[in-house]
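Q: Please design a sequence for this.
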């Protein structure tokens, strides 16, 4: 499948089937996250893979947005490892975002759907899974196969025109 087709067909899945994701597909998704570029190649990503019924119950205590997925990745990064530029941004946020994107796209290529979820309770995730304080929890990513009610959200097809999002050389209303 061409990359343009892959990104066009991917949407945030909110209706998962209970079928487990095969171990070799989980491994391929993790490998995509391992290969993602990070600032200075410091690789601060620390990702918890949750698949057991007990673990999924713990996820449900920290978010109501698992959507029945049989696998959830908890995306975090080590603040002691990530590169920082105080004038720009904590690169850990950027790194884990790139890592998560690689994982989502690899999953999609394998027929596994996903959803990036920010509606989480990080302190509850920390308690439930004994996640150390040096790891900043950014999101969870439920993954699995689409259920019978699977469909893109109603706003999925709505996008701004290119000229509203991209500007050549300078912003059109730039003021000094």
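A: Design:
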């Amino acid at each position: 499948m061409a990359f343009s087709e892959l990104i066009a067909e991917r949407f945030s899945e909110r209706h998962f089937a209970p079928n487990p994701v095969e171990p070799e597909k989980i491994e391929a998704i993790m490998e995509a996250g391992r290969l993602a570029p990070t600032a200075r190649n410091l690789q601060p990503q620390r990702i918890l893979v949750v698949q057991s019924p007990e673990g999924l119950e713990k996820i449900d205590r920290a978010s109501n947005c698992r959507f029945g997925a049989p696998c959830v990745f908890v995306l975090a990064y080590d603040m002691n490892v990530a590169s920082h530029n105080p004038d720009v941004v904590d690169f850990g946020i950027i790194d884990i975002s790139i890592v998560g994107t690689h994982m989502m796209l690899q999953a999609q290529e394998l027929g596994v759907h996903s959803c990036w979820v920010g509606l989480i309770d990080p302190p509850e995730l920390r308690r439930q899974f004994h996640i150390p304080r040096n790891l900043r929890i950014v999101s969870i990513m439920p993954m699995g196969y689409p259920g019978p009610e699977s469909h893109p959200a109603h706003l999925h097809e709505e996008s701004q025109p290119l000229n509203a999002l991209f500007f050549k050389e300078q912003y059109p209303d730039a003021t000094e």
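Q: Thanks. Anything notable?
A: The chain has a mean pLDDT of 94. The domain at 27-145 is CATH 3.40.109.10 (NADH Oxidase).
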